[in-house]
Amino acid sequence: MGDSSTTKRRIAIVGGFNRVALGRWLRALLPGDEVRVFSPRQLDELQGVTHLALETSGNLAIPEAARKQGARVVLYPAVSADFLFPHTGRQHPLNRANQAHPPGPFGLEHGDSALEAMRADGVPPDEAVRRYLALDIASTAGLDRKLEQALRAARQLDERTGFALAPLIETRFRTERLFISRGRADGSLLRAIGRELLARLGLPEPTDAALAKLEAVGAEQPLHPGVIAHFGLTYAGPATEYAFPAGETSTFERYCRLYLAYPGNGPQPRPQTAPEATAPAPEVTSPAHEPTPEATAAPATPEPAAPQPVAPEPAAPEPAAPEPETPPAETFAPITAGEEDLPLAALAARSGPPPLPFELPPEPPPAPKKKTGLFGRLFGAG
Fold it and tell me: What is the pLDDT along the chain (382 residues), one digit of tens a residue?
C-alpha cells in the first residue's frame, strides 16, 4: 500500500518477541518511513521518534522522553500462552550460541523444565521420553488453571490498552494456531495486533493482502501431545512437524530427544592423542580450541620440555571462552529474527552485515555538542 505523506515518520516498535515480526512488516508496509525495533531496556535512549508502539504486560509507563517530544504513543498488549507451553520459559542450562542459530537451539522459548529435571536426575533418554509422553500434563501442569490465568491477564491488558485480544484467544486457540511458542503470536492474533497498532498510531489502514503478510518470526515450539488432546486442538497432532532452529523440522518426540542429547550435555569428541586435554572438554565448544599444540609438540626431541609449556596453554583460553556464550541473564535482549536471545555485546561484535535489516544502533560518537539519543543518531535528529 502506498503512503501519500511527504514527511518521513520515525517509528519505534518496543517490546519482546513479537516486536521483530511487527517491525519487519511495518518496514515493508511503509518503505518511505524509518522503522526500528528496540528492547525495553533502551527506552530512556529514544529520541527523535514520532510514533512509538510500546508493548506492555501491565507495569510499563510511557517514557517521559517520548512525552516531551510529542511522539504519538500507543501501548499494545504482551501476549502469552503458558497453557499451551506449560514447561517452557527457561533455556537449557547448557544452551550455547552457534553460527547456524545465534541464540542456540534451546533458548527461553525452547527450553523445557520437565525434560531438564529428568536430564539433571540422570534418567536415560529413552526412559525420559517414555515418561514425558505418558505424563498426564493436563493435571500435573494445571492446564485449565493456566488458561484461566492467561485469559484473565489478557482481559486486564485489553482494558488498559483498548485492544480486544482476550475474546479472540478464547474463541480461536483450539481451531487456529495463534502462537508458535509461549510468547510469539501468529495468525489472526498477530494480525489483530498489527491492524490495531496502525489505527492507533494514525497510520494508513492495511489492505487484506498486506495484512496477510504479517507472520510470526522465529522457531516453532512443539506442542506436547497431552496438551493437544486436552484442549482438542484441531491444527496439530502427535506426528505434527514443527519448524525448529537452523531450518530443521521436528516432532514433539524428536524435540525431546534432541533436548536430552544436546551436544553440550557431555564431553565433545576429542583427538585420542591427547588424553590430558579431555578433562576440560565439556567447557570447550569451538574446534579452534582443540589441543593441537600438543600434537605438534609430541614428536619434538626434548620430551620433558615439550609438555611443560604446553600444559598451561589450554587452561588460559578456557575461562574466557564461556563468557560471551553464557552472559548474565539480564544482558539478553531480542534483536532480530533468529537472534532473540543473543546478548547485545555479542551482536555488536559480529562482523559483516546482519541477516535482517534490524541492526543494533551504533555506539554514540565521542561527546558531541548536542545530546543525541538512539533515534537522534539513527535519523539525524538533534
Answer: 444 446 889 999 999 889 999 999 999 999 999 999 988 888 777 778 899 999 998 766 666 666 777 889 999 999 999 999 999 998 999 988 877 677 788 988 999 999 999 999 999 999 999 999 999 999 999 999 999 999 999 999 999 999 999 999 999 999 999 999 999 999 999 999 999 999 999 999 999 999 999 999 889 999 999 999 999 999 999 999 999 875 678 999 999 999 999 875 433 333 333 334 433 333 333 333 333 333 333 344 444 444 444 344 434 333 333 333 333 222 222 333 333 333 222 322 332 222 222 222 333 344 444 444 444 444 344 3
- Which residues, 6+ apart, have CB-to-CB distance to 141 below 8 Å? 86, 87
Name the grid cell of 219. Answer: 522457531
Amino acid at 185: A
Can you tell me which residue has the cell 530427544? 257
What is the identity of the amino acid at 67?
R
pTM of the model: 0.69
Looking only at the bridges linking them, the beta strands covering 72-77 and 179-181 are unpaired
Q: How many residues does the chain have?
A: 382
Do residues 218 and 340 touch, judged by C-beta distance below 8 A? yes
* Closest-CA residue to 222 (of 198, 206, 241): 241
